[in-house]
Design goal:
- The structure is a single chain.
- By secondary structure, this protein is of the alpha/beta class.
- 39% of the residues lie in helices and 18% in strands.
- The protein has a 9-stranded mixed sheet with strand order 28-27-29-30-37-36-35-32-33, with helices on both faces. The protein has an 8-stranded parallel barrel with strand order 8-9-10-13-14-15-16-17, surrounded by 4 helices. It has a 5-stranded mixed sheet with strand order 1-2-4-3-7.
- Helix 5 packs parallel to helix 7.
- The chain starts with a helix and ends in an 11-residue tail after the last helix.
Length: 966
């Protein structure tokens, strides 16, 4: 009995030891520390692909021990069709087989993501892995402009980025080869040479990877100094306003100039192998004249047909993509009719800046051979600034959009503004390669590969929180704390070689920042500053942030943090060493301008030669140290020493130190922080309007009113400010045009010592009445066209976009205001709203309906300056504010008041007879067809501030409402 028990124990021990021995032996045999790549069977030009694989393995296992060597063999096989690839892994070797190089590249990506990585080794997993992309067109549009990441990173970093995207399965790239128009004027010659050098390097890499290179196919945009006679009629809302000079192709000389420009562009790209041309309709383009409209379904197609002929002659094998960005139904109908008789279009690109896919292309099959592709917005949706807080990841959002259209589309062209949305790139590519997969599976592969060592399920959970916390204004502490805990756990476990990589740092910083800023008003606590500083470096955003702070359009991917105070020109903390900044900006052949912000600057001895130097000192700047200037300025050598503390006061015209003129300061009077605070309030209110119950919105708004009231009494010098409501535009949250309008209204109201309050859209009339009861006046803001049925008219064929929910909200708001005789001021669409509400009618389209021909009031290219005159009636309330007679105004409308409402009178007309201002003697109301908020801010004409500062006088009510602000 004892023997039997002992025997059993011994047998169990032998079995246990055998299992352990076999397990250890097997485990040891499955670990590898080196890769041997066999590329002898593929052409020499393709053999660099082995380096892609070996380099990425070495990066993950830099401290490798002497385990085994894993062998990878590449084979070109004509039997593997298209861009497919097959990967076999067995034991200590793998084979990647494909019919062309891009298949071998994608197969390499599959193999790399199949490994399990340790700090000193990697472990393959036996199996067969197939790359069979379901969607054939997979393009990464790397937008290179506004000094963003793609413009500032060097060629090594960008080529590496392109490699990674090709390994993921992207087969096409759009990348600005030529210097963007928006940046050309402010670039030095050295910067232009650098841009061209990097362009060539990235282009060559794209071609070497066997990927297609896409460019723009031409539009109707021209240089701003083009002849005025060429000018197009601006498009009406919601089309994009032009940022340059749009020409009308219906004008023969303008068309001739456009074709000449296209020929010139083709000549510059003659040495390039162009895989596709993409034609854009409205984004910085278009014409709204009678001959061209509807632009997308008419004038645009006639123009790009001519461009197509030229492009095809120069690049016969290129594909042709027609974008439908900002198309409405009239545009789509015109395009579909055109495609029935024209077969040169290969792809139609359709998408929208929102959370649904456009209905028209889903309900109507494309005629002819053209195939549908999408334009996923992975960079900007729902965020301002776009990359301001680190990595963004929206897997569920993008999966929902994809599932809406996957049955109808054959690919994508996603739009990228930087490196912060790398997770979104992987999500989009993964879904279009394999629609049967899930976003969680894609995230696990991403985490296992890029954040090896950590638990991929932790990464999936972290991304869930990042998506939930996408809108900073709606974050909750329990969510940000959970995300932070997961990020700290992953940071402890991730392989040391990957912990400092930009992908992980962007995710880590995002989680840390969310927890720092949750619950704050301006998202800029001092404790968050180190994280924002790190983002500046990760984005290469030093120059971009400086341009933004200077008041120029420098891009919107830079971090949120800006120095406290006003008039700052440089993002740099006090007591930084200025010497290195001067050296960095120095260029031997060009004028160098060095901006030093307020604070104590430690300046080491420095000599600048063969350069034109201007040292600009900001208000409060103090130089400590010695700066020797030996600069050649216009042929005259000037020397001088700065060896003292220098203080430059506001208003200084020149600064002379030891006989040397070193600065001509430029002061920024715009209350930047105040404007941003108002925009944040807009964002918060609109978010609540979309996601909370009516009563919660009202309670939240009451709380904000109390905070604002206390703020204004303490800070603006107005002991009893007016609370002026601004109607919700009902535009998608985050839309750039909405933010611009919000900022202008808010700034005008604040400049006059009053409080702007944005009234969110509500469907509960009782809740809306409660909000209105707290206001002293109401501004009805601009926007889309009105439904003609509201004033008993039949829709015109030239009617623009109608937003029914906006009509309903405006009328509900006016009813609530009228019930308590709240003063109302209408601006642009707002004056039309007042006229319809009180019984008047509109001209639906001035160019086609107004008796005077050639009426041009839709001048979106000149928002901030007068483009025509109005004649203000003597004795009108407006005349008492801004004067009578002729006054120049801006003009951004194609509709206008027709039959004036009972009880109203005309206070001003344009010189062509269009009604521009109406005032009521029966009710406290007035309306202006122009935009005084933009003339006052962007245009600098402070006369128009009086319209907001004396809104009660303009509307005819000299006192505030008796029950206001209780």
């Amino acid at each position: 009995m004892i023997w039997k028990t002992t025997y059993k124990k011994m047998r169990c021990m032998v079995v246990f030891v055998s299992i352990v021995f076999v397990g250890l032996f097997t485990h040891a045999e499955s670990l590898y520390s080196e890769t041997e790549v066999v590329v002898s069977s593929i052409p020499e030009a393709m053999r660099f692909i082995g380096g892609l694989l070996s380099e990425r393995v070495r990066e993950r296992t830099p401290e490798s021990d002497s385990y085994g060597t894993f062998r990878v063999r590449y084979v070109l096989d004509a039997a593997v069709t298209g861009e497919e690839a097959r990967v076999w892994v067995k034991g200590d070797e793998a084979e990647i087989r494909a019919g062309r190089l891009r298949g071998l590249v994608a197969g390499t990506g599959l193999l790399l993501k199949s490994f399990q990585y340790g700090a000193k080794s990697f472990c393959p997993k036996d199996g067969v892995y197939d790359f069979k992309p379901a969607k054939s067109f997979r393009m990464a549009y790397l937008a290179r402009h506004f000094i963003n990441y793609y413009m500032e990173a060097d060629e090594h970093e960008l080529c590496r980025h392109v490699d990674d995207l090709a390994l993921d399965g992207n087969n096409s790239f759009t990348y600005q080869y030529e210097i963007p128009v928006v940046d050309a004027a402010r670039m030095t010659e050295i910067e232009k040479k650098r841009f061209s050098r990097i362009s060539k390097a990235v282009y060559n890499r794209i071609i070497a990877l066997d990927c297609d290179f896409g460019v723009g196919g031409g539009g109707n945009q021209m240089r701003t100094d083009s002849p005025e006679e060429f000018r197009a009629e601006p498009n009406t809302n919601p089309k994009c306003p032009p940022t340059g000079f749009n020409a009308c192709p219906a004008k023969p000389r303008a068309l001739e100039a456009l074709l000449k420009g296209r020929k010139k562009d083709l000549g510059r790209s003659a040495d390039l192998k162009v895989g596709s041309f993409c034609y854009w309709p409205y984004d910085e383009g278009g014409c709204g004249c009678k001959t061209c409209r509807p632009w997308g379904g008419n004038g645009f197609l006639k123009l790009i047909e001519k461009f197509h002929a030229m492009n095809s002659a120069a690049q016969p094998s290129a594909k042709h993509i027609v974008s439908t960005w900002f198309f409405d139904d009239a545009d789509y109908k015109g395009l579909y009719t055109y495609l029935e008789t024209h077969d040169w279009v290969d792809y139609v690109l359709a998408d929208d800046f929102g959370d649904t896919y456009p209905e028209y292309p889903l309900k109507h099959k494309l005629p002819g051979k053209a195939r549908l592709i999408t334009f996923p917005e992975i960079s900007m949706w729902g965020r301002v600034p776009w990359g301001g807080f680190g990595a963004i990841a929206l897997p569920k959002f993008h999966e929902r959009l994809f599932r809406q259209c996957e049955h109808a589309v054959d690919g994508f062209k996603y739009y990228s503004e930087g490196n912060y949305e790398d997770i979104n790139k992987a999500i989009i590519t993964g879904l279009y390669v394999d629609p049967s997969t899930t976003v969680d599976a894609i995230l696990r592969r991403y985490g296992s590969y890029h954040f090896a060592g950590a638990d991929p399920d932790d990464f999936v959970r972290l991304v869930e929180f990042l998506e939930k916390n996408h809108r900073p204004h709606l974050m909750e502490k329990r969510d940000t704390a959970e995300a932070k805990a997961l990020a700290l756990k992953i940071d402890r476990e991730i392989l040391p070689s990957l912990r400092s990589g930009w992908r992980w740092r962007l995710v880590y910083v995002r989680a840390m920042l969310d927890d720092e800023i949750v619950g704050t008003e301006d998202f800029q606590p001092e404790s968050a500053k180190p994280y924002f500083d790190e983002l500046v470096k990760l984005y290469h955003a030093e120059r971009q942030l400086q341009w933004v702070l200077d008041g120029n359009m420098g891009g919107w991917t830079c971090p949120k943090y800006v120095p406290a105070g006003r008039g700052f020109k440089v993002y740099a903390p006090p007591q930084d060493d200025a010497t290195e900044m001067v050296r960095k900006l120095l260029d031997d052949s060009m004028k160098t301008v060095v901006h030093l912000g307020a604070g104590d600057w430690n300046v080491k001895p420095l000599v600048l030669r063969r350069s034109r130097l201007e040292l600009v000192l900001e208000k409060g700047c103090r130089l400590n140290g010695e700066l020797t200037i030996a600069a050649n300025v216009d042929g005259v050598t000037v020397t001088g020493d700065v060896n003292k503390r220098v203080r430059v006061e506001k208003g200084a015209k020149n600064v002379v130190v030891d006989g040397v003129r070193v600065a001509a300061p430029h002061w920024d009077e715009r209350p930047y922080a105040d404007v941003q605070a108002e925009i944040r309030r807009v964002d918060k209110l609109l978010e609540w309007a979309d996601q909370h119950a009516e009563q919660e919105k009202v309670a939240f708004l009451y709380g904000k009113l109390r905070e604002l009231k206390a703020l204004e009494r303490n800070g603006c010098g107005n002991a009893n400010p007016l609370f002026i409501g601004i109607s919700d535009t009902c535009a998608p949250v985050g839309k750039a045009s909405q933010w611009a309008r919000a900022g202008h209204y808010a700034e005008c109201i604040r400049k006059t010592g009053n409080v702007p309050v944005f009234v969110p859209r509500m469907t509960d009339t009782n809740a809306l009445a409660e909000v209105v009861a707290k206001l002293d006046a109401l501004i009805l803001s601009g926007g889309e066209d009105f439904d003609p049925s509201l004033y008993g008219a039949t829709p015109s064929p030239h009617l623009g976009r109608v937003l029914k929910l906006r009509d309903e909200f405006d009328f509900a708001l006016m009813r609530a205001a009228k019930a308590r005789r709240l003063p109302m001021l209408g601006v642009c669409r707002g004056v039309q709203a007042l006229n319809i509400f009180f019984g008047g009618t509109l001209w639906q389209d001035l160019p086609s309906e107004f008796p005077v021909k050639d009426v041009r009031h839709s001048r979106g290219d000149s928002r901030f300056k007068p483009v025509h005159e109005i004649v203000v009636e003597r004795g009108s309330r407006l005349a008492k504010l801004i004067g009578e007679g002729r006054i120049g105004v801006n003009s951004l409308h194609h509709q206008a008041v027709r039959d004036i409402a009972p009880g109203f009178r005309v206070s001003a007309r344009a010189t062509d007879g269009v009604i521009e201002v109406i005032e009521s003697d029966d009710y406290p109301a007035a309306g202006v067809q122009f935009h005084p908020e933009e003339l006052a801010n962007g245009g600098g004409d402070e006369r128009f501030l009086r319209i907001f500062g004396r809104i009660l006088d303009l509307t005819g009510r000299a006192t505030r409402c008796p029950v206001s602000n209780q």
